[in-house]
Known about the structure:
Blueprint: E1 4-6, H1 21-28, E2 31-34, H2 37-40, H3 43-52, E3 57-63, H4 71-79, E4 82-83, E5 88-102, E6 108-114, E7 117-121, E8 127-131, E9 137-143, E10 152-153, H5 161-173
Amino acid sequence: MTMKPISEPPHKLDPPQYLNIEELYQKTGVRYEKIPESVCDDNEAVERIPSERKYLFHDYMEMDRDTLKDYDKMMKVFYDEHLHEDPEIRLIVSGAGFFEVRSIDDRWVRIHVQKGDLLDLPPGIWHRFVLDDKDYIKMLRLFSETPSWEAEFRTKVENPPARDRYRKAMAAIA
């Protein structure tokens, strides 16, 4: 699996630059794991993941025009650059999309996620999400603690405390 750094729209570097999984972690702190697609096809197996991995809470998010209320508004919110105080952990059960994250040097890295991809975005990383051209995704959202839906948007605050903690955590990786 490779990750593509991107520039501002049209979201492509020319020529493309690719990161391997270790480089993704070194540059962003994002952890990636591949879960077998056969697990994603087995509802009971998917339901065991949270307890097996000691996550306290989980839910599902399905995104397409038919299932997501206020679809256009919500897709804009997900695409606005933001961060969270808590990790954002997602297993793609079906469909596909793009998590776009800012590296420690503030460059965009585009991660195409699809069935079986498990991403763990660290607290304090600037990111956004968009669907791919199939316009559908179903994700298992995993939480280590009580779910928090609070997002801090970059257009409103440039340097929230979570971002400082992210920088310190990234310095420890280097």
